[in-house]
Design brief:
- By secondary structure, the protein is of the alpha/beta class.
- The protein is built from eleven helices and 14 strands.
- 32% of the residues lie in helices and 24% in strands.
- The strands form two sheets. A seven-stranded mixed β-sheet has the order 4-5-3-6-2-1-7, sandwiched between helices. The chain has a seven-stranded mixed β-sheet with strand order 8-9-10-12-11-13-14.
């Protein structure tokens, strides 16, 4: 599979690519910009894929085209529904003029071109039809790691309008191709392929994710006087808190604890008992050092990858990786804003910390949180 810059270059040239979900659903799709799409490309995509012609649209474009949400059963109640199916299907559409049955490649291309036009014109469409629009989540793969969001991100990054054709890749038996099968398919047919995890990483590394919003002095019984700085996340509408002790912008290693919010335990002492103990022990360690940062990352009420809550076990383990990558990206950008480039990580976890290093932070060392036997809770 290609790195994202190479994939975008090839997508701009050939206008066709394969996006592979390597994080959870083991699903892959052909992806193409709807803008100015040709009948020849549609014909090739249909011949190769065997799936339905979906089009991922931004929320703004879906509204401009006046497309209502399709009435359908909830995924969990639908026959043969797969866990994680959560497409926001809009009313199917057809071009109003210049087509016959709507089924041919040229007819579908005509409808796709209307959906992908630089200036959307809702009067050029009729309902229902043979093209199935899907409204993608605002924020793309940084909010929801799924094929529609990934397809829309890719065509937008390549410079096309915010409308992306995506068609599931099916095998000879009619079943979805696995990630491995999709990679071989792309290679056999000379089509550029990209992984969803790579797309998430690409965006995390290149886009500003946090904005400093407020700062105040906070007295603390455990660590003395702290500087509290809040950051608003561009990924989710939440604010994160950095508790800073002493001078941390000296260029040398800084003691850092990054911890995800666990309100029940951290505030009221219920739930995971170790979470509160981690917070308090980390603040004591920072106070004894005389400087350091405790970074408290808040989470949205529901962590989503493919629209579902996931555990950290396989097969959801890869989906959990997408969430971890987002937390790494947010945390790393906050630390960089504080002037920190080298960190000594406070963590008793055995989890790999390579994710932080990839965001331009040098991990000098990792040391366990003093006095706490950690066997549960989310830690970095």
């Amino acid at each position: 599979m290609l790195q994202i810059p190479d994939f975008l270059e090839e997508l701009t040239r050939s206008r066709l690519g394969v996006l592979i979900d390597d994080l959870g659903s083991s699903r892959a799709a052909l992806v193409a910009p709807a803008q100015e799409i040709s009948a020849e490309l549609v014909n090739r995509a249909l011949a190769l894929s065997g799936g339905l012609t979906f089009v991922a649209l931004s929320q703004e474009r879906a509204a401009a085209l006046m497309l209502p949400e399709m009435s359908r059963p909830e995924p969990s109640a639908a026959p043969n529904a797969r866990e994680g199916d959560s497409l926001k299907m809009l009313s199917s559409v057809e071009a109003r003029e210049g087509i016959t049955t709507g089924i041919s490649a040229s007819d579908r291309a005509a409808t796709l071109r209307i959906l992908g036009a630089k200036m959307p014109h809702p009067r050029d469409l009729v309902k229902p039809g043979h093209i199935f629009p899907v409204e993608a989540r605002t924020g793309g793969v940084l909010v929801k790691a799924a094929i529609p969001e990934g397809a829309l991100d890719l065509v937008s990054l390549a410079g096309f309008s915010d409308a992306a054709l995506f068609i599931d890749l099916l095998g000879a038996s009619g079943e979805l191709l696995s990630s491995e099968e999709a990679a071989r398919f792309a290679s056999d047919h000379g089509i550029a392929a990209a992984a969803l995890s790579e797309l998430i990483s690409y965006r995390l590394h290149r886009e500003p994710l946090v904005t400093r919003t407020a700062e105040a002095t906070i007295p603390s019984q455990i660590a003395g006087e702290l500087r509290g700085i809040t950051y608003r996340s561009a990924i989710h509408d939440v604010e994160h808190i950095a508790l800073v002790k002493g001078d941390v912008s000296h260029g040398g290693p800084v003691l850092v604890r990054v911890q995800a919010e666990n309100t029940l335990s951290d505030v009221f002492g219920g739930g995971s008992r170790s979470s509160r103990a981690q917070l308090q022990a980390s603040l004591r360690a920072i106070a004894e050092r005389g400087s350091g940062v405790l970074l408290y990352l808040r989470r949205p009420h529901i962590e989503e990858t493919n629209g579902e809550r996931h555990s950290v076990q396989t097969p959801a383990q890869r989906a959990n990786q997408a969430r971890m990558m987002r937390e790494y990206g947010v945390g790393a950008q906050i630390l960089r804003d504080l002037g920190i480039t080298q960190i000594e990580v406070l963590s008793s976890s055995s989890k790999s910390l390579s994710g932080l290093a990839s965001f331009g932070l040098t991990i000098v060392s990792q040391q366990p949180i003093p006095g706490v036997d950690l066997s549960e809770g989310h830690i970095v």
